[in-house]
Write a structure and sequence with these properties.
The complex is a heterotrimer. Chain A is an all-alpha fold. Chain A is about 75% helix and about 0% strand. Chain A has one domain. Chain A has a two-stranded antiparallel sheet with strand order 1-2. In chain A, helix 12 packs antiparallel against helix 17. The longest helix of chain A has about 30 residues. In chain B, about 70% of the residues lie in helices and about 0% in strands. Chain B contains four helices and no strands. Chain B is mainly α. Chain C has four domains: about 130 residues; about 150 residues, no CATH class; about 280 residues, no CATH class; about 80 residues. Chain C is built from 25 helices and four strands. The chains are: A mainly alpha, B mainly alpha, C mainly alpha. Chains A and C meet through helix 6, helix 8, helix 9, helix 11 and helix 16 of A and strand 1, helix 24 and helix 25 of C.
């Protein structure tokens, strides 16, 4: 039956490597974190390479439930790279915190496999399995510091609210199925476009509830409130991973799902309402994210709110509903992943036991005590604020243009205003690092393999700003 | 339209009657020799005397979770078995892979000592 | 991809390698080899392109090398692309050739400095930026390079940031760096506005397209051309240290001497000349701008030359000399003698780099002593430095058949021909001061009695890494002029003017807008050439008569002409005038009005207002973010209901 072995390789390899081999290795090997770490790094590298090889090999596999190549393969590479970078940063961090247990890497890879499934989903059930695989891994990872109350609290909150939101996602899927009598994207979209469903109201409700579920995953208002608490409480490297790869995965599912469910300018009557409602959500999300971030004194929490705000910017691409908008999302996600990851990893390097050294005031004079870290942090902050020539600038630019082209000028104006607000706290940190004197004596830091993560993140933050065409040229292969 | 649902209604009715009959028959026919142990909430389980907020040992949960896992696996295998012929080699390979993955997970759980009861 | 794209790549790689791994490399030798090797590789490519060009007819000696498209959205496209033609190649050869020699020299000069690798990283960065500046095919890339060299210059002037440095309002070298940076910003602002106007008018920033369209869009001599070119020229006065923005260059001498040689003499400061030469069509279309360029150029040449006479810091004399020579170059451009201007850029690069490196050798040998009054008689201790320095002095003074003679004489002659006899006269006086202060410098440094403290200072010749570049540059300074022999001499000696033939295709279009002088002036030209030679020799003789015995006679003269001396010593009080007339009022206005009223009352009011609005919003949002999961679920539920109602019921 319908299975294309070559095109399915990235998914098959990561599943077998994880479930078939990795678990067995861990069953027999005790406390050998180095082996497990190396094994999963190689797994992710192999998966990433296979994804790159299958990039041009588009089509459907697994009975048409899963797509191959194209944007899915691109996201595979992004997830694998993010996974590798997170693992590199996590090892020294977990060792410092005395919590390195080999299951951490298993969970991370299982989350990656879930994300890949989300990006490749061509069927509502597959999408749901992917979402759950990722989310459940995240719930456990969030509570990975079992002795820290904050970490436990983060895990529990995330789990409760996540389960709540997942319920709506499934309910939405059920309603969509009920009104279109199909689970695969192609059939659903043909019904939606033709407007032939006997239950238009149910369809609209189903789409809305699915949007709710996905908005929860990307942390958009009013489904964002878990994000600051969870990102602050979780181990910093986990926050880094969740707020980058997790958000990218949610959008990788959001784009095809809403190309299907919200075909701008065709058939279904709810589309206009949906588009406008999402635009309002986007606007409020970025305002709430950025305004809340202004009031924060904790760097980790500030980054959490910044991640909320970025969900708002990214939603603009969904609102536009055009290919250009979707490309802008992919570009900005890639850029955002590297700069946000870089910023979080720096926080993880500077962090001390019991959530120590996380306040803005702890970063005073960092340029004198840790010039390289301060420089990189400043770079990531500039990029997050959207200052050229860094990657963030081009991503924002493309999103704004896409929104204007779809007639959402007011949304773009709000986006610009909230970007201006965001400059306040991004540059606030830079000012703190460069124009104030260090308080107390600086402590030694040993980034270890996290240095590699920072190097790659910084390189991409610059590269995507200086050579945006590299990524843009890949998009032509998508469509 | 509603005619199509008639078998379902009959089914519900039979189920209800069967269940009720059993309870009532037991009440009428059964001997009644009450002891303290028999009247307790969980006849052969824990002593329901302390605070209800007692912590259960994690072993209970682990076993329960494993049980549900394999329970669902079996449920999954029924429709597969019914369609076995039409699914052919593809379906067979898929199920073998599924079993392998599940088994490796089981191996892991056993090796980590989740089923050790002391 | 053309090999020309590799020219800027090597210095970039050098910068990255040394910048990132400099501390790990440890070995000074290795860093030196990487740093100089990168420049040498670029130079080799430039030379190979040069020879391939020689095999082509003049009009075809031009390559457009697209590297990649940087920004491409809608109407706005920016290409990173290089325009390799006669002009940019000549500048590239100067930058990489002399740059290489100075890199080699720096290995010896910076030996033992604790920031050795940082120095080479900056130096490579500078070369990379400078190459982008001259090779760019559009304004934006040039501007990027323009800002980049400014940054590199800032970093290098303040390289020894903890050292003290004397100047008006300056205490530390860092202050000098800041001054250079800020003064340049004023000029850059002009360039930026000019770029906006050009993009608005032509829809492109490409040099070739603007040059092609400009004559059809703007009539020659219209106000718009003058505005744009004057704005560009404002940038040039900043970068090339002309009046009124020239005050930063002498203070820039706070940087290490190789930096002064490379950046503040041979290359960066000539980028103003490059910009005008590159846009010769635009400038030629505006006679009024050309007149301004001429006026500023010749005035700067004279004023800087006279200040140079009384300075006692060996590097400051050379700095004022540089300002003065740049003035000559602008004079040439202003009278439409583009080739002569670029020719002087080249010969000046040779002899001024030589003189700076020579002065560096002296400073090195004298243990960081820079005051020429405390030198003298060094000829005995540093023979190679002395001989090469002497050649440089003769070249800059305009002694016949040394390189400076040809280029300076060409400028004076063109000034006479296209401008007026007065222009020639002022230029001749400036040339006289040049000869005078240069001989004064040579005499006080190398000749006469030894005025330094023998107990503490033991002058010694510099190592080979420093003297070999001196010798190479001396050869170039001596014979480099033969590339652009003036027609009358060339005619007599049967030597063609190679440079003019080389650059003609570049300036052809610009020249077509300028009036042409026909007729045979051979006798007149011979006469003026003779006169300027006499003037140069007179300058040297006068200096010799005053300074050959040391400083006493000079002190006597200074005492008798106290007024003029004080005026010159204080550099015409330019810094003070700036402080009084510009900086003071600006400070007063900004303090009393902008800060106390405008800023505190109005801007702060607005900012605080919006900040407090944001703050209030943040406080409100903070309340919603209670930390209680049930409340979060409640808000989600409210959101879901609203969302559902909107989508399903909304019309």
């Amino acid at each position: 039956m319908g299975i294309d072995l070559f095109g399915s390789l990235p998914l098959v390899v990561i599943w077998l490597a994880l479930g078939g081999v990795g678990i067995v290795i861990q069953a027999f090997v005790r406390d050998n974190t180095r082996l497990v770490f190396g094994y999963y790094i190689s797994t992710l590298i192999a998966t990433g390479v296979l994804a790159a090889l299958t990039f041009g090999h588009t089509g459907l596999t697994f009975d048409g439930m899963v797509t191959m190549g194209g944007s899915g393969a691109f996201f595979d590479i992004l997830f694998c790279v993010t996974g590798i970078l997170t693992m590199l940063a996590a090892r020294p961090y977990l060792q410092r915190e005395d919590s390195e247990i080999d299951e951490f890497y298993t969970l991370l890879v299982s989350a990656v496999s879930g994300m890949m499934l989300m990006a490749h989903a061509n069927n509502l059930v597959v999408l749901f399995v992917g979402v759950e695989l990722m989310s459940i891994s995240f719930y456990v990872m969030a509570g990975f510091f079992r002795k820290s109350i904050r970490s436990i609290e983060a895990a529990l909150k995330y789990f409760l609210l996540g389960a709540f939101a997942t319920g709506f996602l499934v309910y939405g899927m059920a309603l969509v199925y009920g009104s279109t009598n199909a689970l695969d994207y192609a059939t659903i979209t043909s019904v939606v476009r033709a407007g032939t469903t006997p239950f238009p109201m149910l369809l609209a409700a189903g789409v809305t509830l699915m949007a709710v579920g996905l908005c929860f995953k990307i942390a958009a208002f009013p489904f964002h409130q878990w994000a600051p608490d969870v990102y602050q409480g979780s181990p910093t490297v986990v926050s880094a991973f969740m707020s980058t790869a997790g958000k990218a995965a949610a959008f990788s599912a959001f784009i095809p799902a809403f190309t299907m469910l919200m075909p701008v300018g065709a058939g279904a009557s709810y589309v206009m309402n949906m588009q406008l409602a999402l635009a309002v959500i986007a606007a409020v999300t970025m305002l709430v994210g950025n305004i809340s971030a202004v009031a924060q004194s904790n760097v980790k929490r500030m980054l959490a709110f910044s991640s909320v705000a970025h969900a708002g910017y990214l939603l603009m691409g969904i609102v536009s509903g055009t290919a250009a908008g979707h490309q802008a999302i992919v570009f900005y996600l890639t850029a955002y992943t590297f700069m946000q990851l870089g910023a979080f990893v720096i926080v993880s390097i500077l962090e001390r036991e019991n959530d120590g050294h996380l306040e803005f005031s702890d970063y005073a004079g960092l340029s004198k005590t840790h010039p390289v870290l301060a420089f990189l942090m400043a770079m990531f902050m500039f990029s997050l604020a959207g200052i050229p020539p860094f990657a963030g600038f081009f991503g924002k630019y493309m999103l704004f243009i896409a929104a204007i082209d779809s007639g959402f000028t007011w949304l773009t104006i709000i986006a610009v205003v909230s970007s201006v607000i965001s400059v306040y706290f991004y540059l606030g940190l830079v000012v703190k690092m460069y124009f104030s004197d260090p308080v107390g004596e600086g402590h030694a830091t040993n980034p270890g393999t996290a240095a590699l993560t920072l190097g790659v993140a910084a390189a991409f933050t610059v590269l995507l700003g200086v050579l945006p065409s590299v990524l843009q040229s890949m998009f032509t292969a998508f469509h | 339209m509603l005619v199509h649902y008639l078998p379902l209604i009959i089914m519900i009715a039979i189920g209800a009657i069967f269940g009720l009959t059993n309870i009532i028959m037991a009440e009428i026919l059964g001997p009644k020799r009450s002891t303290r142990a028999k009247l307790s909430t969980y006849e052969s389980g824990m002593e329901p005397v302390k605070s209800a907020r007692e912590r259960f040992t994690v072993k209970f949960y682990l076993v329960a979770m494993m049980f549900i896992l394999f329970d669902i696996e079996v449920v999954f295998m029924y429709p597969w078995a019914v369609q076995f012929k039409s699914l052919g080699m593809y379906g067979f390979t898929a199920m073998i892979l599924f079993m392998v993955l599940l088994f490796s997970g089981y191996l892991y759980v056993v090796k980590k000592g989740a089923l050790k009861w002391d | 991809m053309n090999s020309a794209a590799l020219i800027p790549l090597f210095p970039l790689l050098g910068f990255l390698v040394i910048g990132l791994f400099g501390k790990q490399l440890k070995s000074e030798r290795l860093i030196g080899i990487i740093g100089s090797g990168a420049i040498l590789a670029s130079f080799a490519i430039a030379v190979s392109i040069f020879f391939s060009f020689l095999g082509m007819p003049g009009e075809e000696r031009s390559m457009h090398v697209p590297v990649y498209t940087w920004i491409s959205t809608g109407a706005f496209t920016v290409n990173i692309a290089y325009q390799v033609d006669q002009l940019s190649l000549l500048f590239t050869l100067i930058i990489t050739g002399i740059g290489f020699l100075i890199h080699v020299y720096s290995i010896g000069y910076m030996h033992g400095d604790k920031s050795f690798s940082r120095f080479f990283a900056y130096l490579n960065l500078f070369v990379f930026m400078m190459l982008n500046l001259v090779l760019a095919d559009n304004f934006l890339l040039t501007f990027l390079g323009w800002e980049g060299v400014g940054l590199a210059s800032y970093l290098l002037i303040g390289f020894w940031y903890e050292r003290k440095f004397e100047g008006t309002g300056i205490v530390y070298t860092g202050d000098a760096a800041k001054k250079a940076f800020i003064v340049n910003r004023i000029g850059d602002f002009g360039v930026l506005i000019a770029m906006f106007i050009l993009f608005n008018t032509f829809g492109t920033l490409s040099y070739s397209e603007i040059a092609a369209q400009a004559p059809t869009v703007w009539a020659p001599g219209t106000a718009m051309v003058s505005v744009v070119t004057l704005l560009l020229f404002l940038g040039c006065t900043g970068k090339s240290a002309q009046i009124p923005l020239g005050i930063w260059l002498p203070d820039a001498m706070a940087g290490p001497t190789p930096v002064s040689a490379l950046i503040h003499a041979a290359t960066m400061v000539t980028s103003g000349i490059f910009l005008i030469a590159r846009n010769n069509v635009l400038f030629a279309m505006s006679p009024s701008t050309m007149a301004v360029v001429t006026g500023i150029g010749i005035t700067t040449a004279l004023i800087a030359g006279t200040i140079g006479i009384v300075q006692n810091d060996i590097k400051k004399v050379l700095a004022y000399s540089t300002v003065s020579q740049l003035g000559f170059m602008f004079t040439a451009l202003g009278v439409g003698a583009f080739t002569a201007g670029v020719f002087h850029v080249m010969t000046h690069a040779f002899f001024k780099a030589l003189l700076f490196l020579g002065s560096g050798s002296v400073i090195h040998g004298m243990h960081e002593q820079q005051d020429i009054q405390k030198m003298g008689g060094l000829k005995k201790y540093m023979p190679t430095t002395y001989k090469t320095f002497l050649i440089g002095t003769l070249a800059i003074s305009g002694i016949p058949f040394f390189s400076g003679f040809f280029s300076k004489d060409e400028i004076l002659w063109m000034g006479f021909l296209n401008g007026s006899p007065i222009l020639w006269g002022v230029g001749a006086v400036a040339a006289f001061t040049t000869a005078f202060y240069m001989w004064r410098l040579t005499s006080l440094t190398f000749l006469g009695e030894e005025r330094f403290d023998h107990h503490h200072v033991h002058p010694h010749e510099s190592p080979a890494t420093m003297t070999i570049p001196l010798i190479v540059l001396a050869v170039l300074s001596a014979f480099g002029g033969f590339l652009g022999v003036p027609h009358v001499i060339g005619h007599a000696l049967h030597i063609p003017n190679l440079l003019e033939g080389w650059l003609d295709p570049i300036f052809e279009r610009g020249m077509s807008f300028l009036p042409k002088h026909v007729g045979d002036h051979a006798m007149l030209e011979w006469g003026l050439m003779g006169a300027s030679t006499v003037i140069a020799i007179a300058g040297i003789m006068l200096a010799k008569s005053i300074y050959s015995k040391g400083t006493e006679r000079a002190e006597g003269i200074a005492a008798r002409m106290k007024g003029i001396y004080t005026l010159l010593w204080n550099k015409y009080y330019v810094d003070e005038v700036y402080n009084f007339a510009v900086i003071g009022p600006i400070l007063a206005v900004s303090r009393d009005f902008l800060w106390k009223i405008f800023d505190v009352k109005i801007i702060d009011g607005i900012v605080n207002g919006s900040a407090s609005t944001v703050g209030a919003g943040a406080a409100a949002l903070r309340k919603i973010q209670s930390g209680v999961a049930q409340n979060y679920a409640l808000l989600m539920m409210v959101g879901i209901i609203a969302f559902l109602a909107w989508v399903t019921l909304g019309r």
